[in-house]
Protein 1
Amino acid sequence: MDLSVADRVMGESLFTLLKFAVLPIAKVLVMCALGLLLASSSVNILPAPSRRQLSKLVFSLFLPCLIFTQLGKAVTVEKILEWWFIPVNVILASTFGCCLGYLVAFLVKPPPEFFNFTVIMIGIGNIGNIPLVIIGAICREKGNPFEHPDTCNTNGVAYISFGQWVGAVIVYTYVYSMLAPPVRPKELDGSNSTNGVMTGKAESASESTERNVAATSSEETSISVPLLVLDDVPPPRPQGWELVKAWLSHGRIRDIMQPPVVASFLALLFGCVPLLRSLIFTEHSFLYFLFDSLNILGGATVPCIMLVLGGNLVGGAGASKLGLRTTVAIVATRLLVTPIIGIATVLSAEKLGFLPVGNKVFKFVLLLQHTMPSSILAGAVTNLRGHAEKEASAILFYEHILAVLSMAGWLVLYINVLF
């Protein structure tokens, strides 16, 4: 009798474990399948131009609204001091991942123009979109292993948002420079040869123009004297607001200050200042209607992201020039090896006392930051730089297909062993 009860309890616990590990991935698959259906040629409600516009809408409106409402409501000055390890974990995940990417690239030897691309696709993970879906899917269940559904989802989204601004800075600085198109030697040789041909022509043309200028100048000096002599006066230096605008327009400051990053900073400001917090985030306050409106808009973030991601899979992997060995190495390393490094990092931080005691959602989000496929923003940077776009599409395609199995396995490990 005791054995049957023990077997029944073990069966129920195994079912509960599989439910919390597999159901989030199943929800992701259902939403992606609907996006794939809407983007198919038979339905064609969500073609490529519509997906691009929907992605811009999510990036510019829905995601900032979600970050502002969830992060601003949960954050305080005390919690910022308590959550300091979240951005540090993002930096560590990118650093260890890129070191691993260099090692894999040296061993696999991808085509030379894709060496940096291999490092980036292994080292930089998706710390925003997919973790939001995973947290939302797990926290909606009443018997989830973390907290009450409301506080679980609010805190989880706040933790993820608190790390997103660091990820955006990494993507638009380090990743942007790493994914620069390679300089082709043939183009350099061709340019040098053409420069050599043009030099002779330019010299002869310059000699003739100099003679003409000398003749005309001698005629002009005999007739009149120039009224104004121009000196090499340097332009005045910008001051005040002009200096600020010049600094903001320089480099990639605008690229770094994307709407989700700005929303994170505003959420930190409004959440940490008691007066602003009481005006917006307190129920029945004067501006609470603004919070409620933004919260409704933010609720559309996750469904739209999944529809776009599913719709992007309609074209398949594309024509990649990476080769099978490099593709397998990137996908396997990103999905199977980097989570092991993440487990070691998070457990070491916990033993050193860097993590809040007893906060399971906090620890789970840190682990998710090491478990996700390659960053979708890194794929967007390839389009921006005009280099390795097809290769990035292929890697993201294979990773998101295989991540269904890998993430289910890692979630089973996290929930069963670590919690």
Note: The chain has one domain: 16-181+258-418.
Protein 2
Amino acid sequence: MTVNSIRLEQHFEQMSEIGKLGETGTNRPTLSPSEKQAFELASSWMQAAGMTTRIDNFGNLIGRLEGTKPELPVLMMGSHLDSQPYGGRFDGVAGVLCAIEAVTTIVEKGIKPERTIEVVSFADEEGWRFNKGLFGSRGILGRLEEGELDRADKDGITRRQALIDFGCDPKKFDDSLYPPGSIHCFLELHIEQGPVLDLAHKPIGVVSGISGPLWWTVKLKGMAGHAGSVPMPIRQDALVGAAEIILALRQIATQIPDAPTVGTVGTMNVFPASRNVIPEEVTFTVDLRDIDLSRRNMYEAQLREQIEAICGKHHLTYSITEDWNSEPRYCADWLKQIIHAQCNNLNLDAPELMSGPFHDAMALSYATDYAMIFVRCKDGISHNPLEFASYKDLALGAEVLYGTVLEVLKHEPYNL
């Protein structure tokens, strides 16, 4: 193995101490003091590898290994260091630390690439603090939407203020943009966050594409009343309507048993939230994903029909706000070929599989060719302190990434 597996393991152990939750969990919100601490640690490793580092105005940490021909579009790789509030040690972190290890190995081998390499820890991939993710990766491409800076977290802190507190200047976003054509390709290593590789006893997988996520915020409005006196037949109970919609979503998403469609309601707020008051207002999120856009569109239409019917039955009004909508994005064939070749060199039988979760690579796919390497995680558990990937598997992933980078540096897509 060319990469230093012991050093990589030490880096994971050190990073896991920042925002540590219990024995194995992580709570490292975006644009927080703990993420800044994580950036400082990762930056020290980048600098030790000969990279210059900076935090741009979107809150991204960027390590840059200057090529001998800096005018060439950059080879970019990375992931994120922010976590879910009840997260694990490897989600996102694997992509950043393995990328740092790949660059460190390149420098230690005395390789001087013509093309500049950048390793990025993107800001707010997770999206839970401000209810919209992939902020940093969309930001550098000029793909932010109106009103994103005004989104507030549960404490009332806006994203704009959080960026300023982090040392960024939202008024200077233009200084941090990547012009069209300035990124040669993007590579992201990530734990699978699903059970396919674990069940197949395969440490490494090659991603074929990323499912298209549709995110809604749904608000139902009924009528509050005394829980002891309003007869059941005339109640306008918003929570009952929400419960039926949740069940309808599950039925819609599972109507084709073997399809990879998934539907989730992950958060819910009930007003006035008193045990003896009929719920008047319920706000909840919907997450619908599929690799097949036509099927997802069909299911979206079915869900809208169900919401209309259920609210009519219970005499509720409703609103649907679309927070995120992306079609499935497929990896570049030429990059997949390189990754498969690297796996073959290591005698790894690496299957191709789709990604249900979205990643920063999805945002980059709108600007450049991309590919992803998946690393097996135990029982497919993620977004949970029980999330686990072995250091042996992670080192294998870093080795595949290292070899892939070397090949990308040697070839252009039209030469393959």
Note: The chain has two domains: 5-211+328-415, 212-325.
Protein 3
Amino acid sequence: MLFQIIATFVWWMMLSITAAQSNTCPPTEYGPPSGVIQSPGFIQHLNYGNDINCVYNIRVADGSHVLLTVNSFVTEQCCDRLIIFDGPSTQSPVIISWSGRVSPGSYAESTGNVVTVIFRTDNTVNAAGFSVQYAPTHSQYTTTTTARPSLQIIDWRNKTTYWGSRPSPNDIHTLVLHHTQEPTVEATMDALNRSQLSVHYIAAKNGTIYQLVDDSNRAWHAGAGTWGDYQNMNDISIGIEIVNSGDEPFPVIQEKAVAALSQIIVTKYNILPKNIVSHADFGLARKIDVSGYFDYKLFYAELGLFPGLFITNLPVSDQKKVLYQESNSFNAAVTIIQQHLHQYGYALTADGFFGNDTELVAEAFNRHFCPEIFFKESIDAQGDDVRHWQNKRWYGISQERLDYLIAHT
């Protein structure tokens, strides 16, 4: 009898929880002059549901920008996100991605009169959701737009002791970009301290920069790996951690802030363009950061580097054509590719065999330079990176980009 009572109670509780959720997306189209977008069930005081993908197409008066202001925002921090695109589709640049608890009054502004907003949730925890107001504005960019940011650097050098002295304080030759896998600057700082690691700078999603270690000191961020003639990367590099989970777009404001900071660093220390690297470019088997979501085309354009690199003369079919892939057979053409990759900086022996080492370098190169064919990584339920075997092939676009880099470095 007691068992039946307990079972009935559990069933009732589960029914109540289910009933307190909504999986029905609100309308898709939102027009001028202003209005509010909300998560499923918000107006009924219900939590949003699992596995939903809601689209909000917002348009304000011609000649205006769209100003989005948070009224209320609570979602699952890791996995349920509101992504705001600066234009009429999800192919437009990302302005910002909100998740977790976002303070009322937080805002984002577009560069035109149209934005596309996506609300995506996973199949686990749900929460109260959001209410975000939209309205026209004629301001000349706010701090969360796609305009070049006024760089704000906050001093956090008292928050870590995990650093040391460089062999030579001014012997700085590389800039290493990472992503954090943590949702906030504070969570990144905690994770670094728990692991007894550090980095010179952290870039928040809103573009604010936090400095943890002096440039002249050796932060513990790069780990093992070789780039060009450099074998101990911590000795000769400056590291920037970019707040990002690894499977989400980077807000344009954040990418532009990283570019602005990078411009200061590469100018001050005369760092060669080819020595601006992702962690994955030399941590080949261990690392995927920065992920394929990072827009190197935008980054290089902001720094004025490699003009024309991302212009292709190949039709789409030739861009995606597989030239070489894993093989136990010797190929003289593969030897030349390996020699050029090594010349650029990748740690690779030119042996003529497209084996595991060459596959890993091809993956890193495609992630960095070939967004047209790169399958972006994801994160599984255990928090592990999910890599794709297709990225380890050598494509027509890979060859075109490598030819450009060799000719311009």
Note: The first strand starts at residue 21 and ends at 22.
